TrEMBL record:
The TniQ domain, residue ranges: 16-96
This protein's name: TniQ family protein
Organism: Neorhizobium phenanthreniclasticum
InterPro entries in alphabetical order: TniQ
Amino acid sequence: MRKPPSHDLQAPQQLPVTLAPCTDELLSSWVARHAVFYGVPPLAMLRHCLPETPSLRATDLSLNDNQILRLAHILCVDEATIRRTTFTDIARSSRCLIATDAIQSCSTCCPAKTEPRAILRSQLLGWRITCALCGDLLQSPSGVSCASTFGHYSATALIGERLLHDEASRKARTWVSPARIAQLLLMRRVKNPTFGNYEPWRYRVLGALIPDLDDVVDRQSLPMSSCPILPLHLRPALLAAIAMVERSGPEMLEMLCGQMRGENKVRFSSAINEIMRGTSRSTASSQLQLI
Ligand SMILES: [Zn+2]
């Protein structure tokens, strides 16, 4: 594709032909479909629109107002449509739960007739077990549903999903960030294993709340706490545990801290202190507003 001349930066040209975005389609997916239509690589297509952008992923995560305006003009839609295709409005604390690729799908809502196949925003949301559009249970790429392993936690897991959704969409604030709790629950209870066949590296804080978890996980099943996105069949356990902590209050965190050992106990304890400092600051702030 012709590289846009420098004056295009001020007056970008609309694409002669544009494709309509699918409902909830991710910006990079929409750009990729335009790239196929125009016969260029997806990044070349994106840089035709936004010359300074580093990657498709960066564009999905965040766009500034000028970039939104420019894309809206080039792709012949309004600014709200562009904004809806990205995670620009997602709370920063929830970004650790946005996957880099599609990790799930809804058999009802995922469009099948596009080429390449459209990727929806909800396919990257690591806190969802139900489709944000229709409410059906999501499926993993291999067709596994979250109902298979921890289905008995489903009612509580839905509360956890709602808490994470509300935080991500900035609809509500509770005493604690549910995404932060997700990270704490995936910490190891012991940092360095020192026992023979006992494998404490497997045993996360989460297992203290969901005892059957340790029998189900294998080494590959659980991610690092910095990226707390569980495979779909294990995710109800994490969501349910988040709901339990949120409902029980700070005492639950203290109890979990008692399950830890050594360096990780110190880290967990310091994280609790940080959370409680944030909670008392926001309480003081709301009390000031009441006065
Ligand atoms: Zn759906």
